[in-house]
Amino acid sequence: MNAFAMLMGLGLACISHPFGALREPTDEGAARRAIEAHYATGADPKTVLESSELYADDAVLEFPQGGERIRGKANIIAFRTAYPAKVDFDMRRTVGTGALWVNEGVIRYDGAKPTHFVGIMEFRGDKVARETIYFGEPWTPPAWRSQWVELIQSECR
């Protein structure tokens, strides 16, 4: 029995197969360019179609904190086209290799308070088969741990 089957037997059915998107080789240069283009154009409702080119037709987009899953490129495009706020991205970094890429950045809705995000993209060939995005609001660090931490100075806080 493989590890995935063992996890399923333990009742952890919400975990996606860790190698599900890794069947086909991914051109890393093309993946990086597609991700950069996605975030460069994704904030403008007029360019949702263009920024969604990186998704496979059967792509899945998940927001675990809201318990939401959007299935299919057409639904991802419809969701992003109907989005009621102006969205701006400040990308911090993109790292990855092969079929697995992680994007870190800051998102602002209608120019309001910045929210940090991490997006995990799983490619199948040259298209994203699954994307999972996590969001976290900034906080003021508590004084009790100041002796161990270094404050990060960022214009995105």
**CATH level 3 topology:** Nuclear Transport Factor 2, Chain: A
Taken in chain order, the helices and strands follow as HHHEEHEEEE
Task: Give the DSSP E fraction (strand runs of 2 or more residues).
Answer: 25-35%
CATH class: Alpha Beta
Q: What is the rounded Rg? A: 17 Å
Total DSSP E strands: 6
Helix content range of the residues, please? 10-25%
Low-pLDDT ranges: 1-21
Helix- and strand-based class? alpha+beta
CATH architecture: Roll
How far apart the termini lie comes to 46 Å
Overall geometric form? globular
Major β-sheet annotation: 6 strands, mixed
Write down the domain tally: 1
Average pLDDT value? 81
- The side-by-side strand order for the widest beta sheet comes to 2-1-6-5-4-3
Number of helices: 4
Provide tags for this entry:
alpha+beta; six-stranded mixed β-sheet; disordered N terminus; 6 strands; 34% strand; globular
In short:
With 157 residues, the protein is α+β, with helices and mostly antiparallel strands. It has helices at 3-9, 28-41, 48-51, 73-81; strands at residues 55-63, 68-71, 87-97, 100-109, 115-124, 127-136.
Structure overview:
The protein has helices spanning 3-9, 28-41, 48-51, 73-81, and strands at residues 55-63, 68-71, 87-97, 100-109, 115-124, 127-136. By secondary structure, it is an alpha+beta fold. It has one domain: Nuclear Transport Factor 2, Chain: A, CATH 3.10.450.50. It has a 6-stranded mixed β-sheet with strand order 2-1-6-5-4-3, with helices on one face. The termini are far apart. Residues 1-21 have low confidence and may be disordered.
